[in-house]
Amino acid sequence: MNNKKKIFLSVLPATVAATIISMSTGSMAADSDPIKVGVMLPFSGVYAGLGESTRNGLKQAIKEQGNNIAGRPVEFIEMDTEAKPARAPEITSSLVDNQQADFVIGPVHSGVAMGMIKSIKGKDSIMIIPNAGANAATGAFCQPNVFRTSFSSWQTAFPMGKEAYDMGYKKIVTMSWNYGFGKESLEAFNESFTKAGGEVIKEMLVPFPKTEFQSYLTEIASINPDAVFVFFAGGGAVKFVKDYDAMGLKGKIPLLGSGFLTEGTTTAQGPAAEEVITTLHYADALDIPKNKHFRQDYETLYGKPADLFAVQGYDAGQLIAQAVTATQGNTSDKAALIEQMEQLEIDSPRGAFHFSKSHNPIQTIYLRKVVDGQNTVVKVAHENLEDPARGCRL
Ligand code: BEZ
Question: Which of the chain's ends, N or C, has fewer CB atoms near its CB within 10 Å?
Answer without folding.
Answer: N
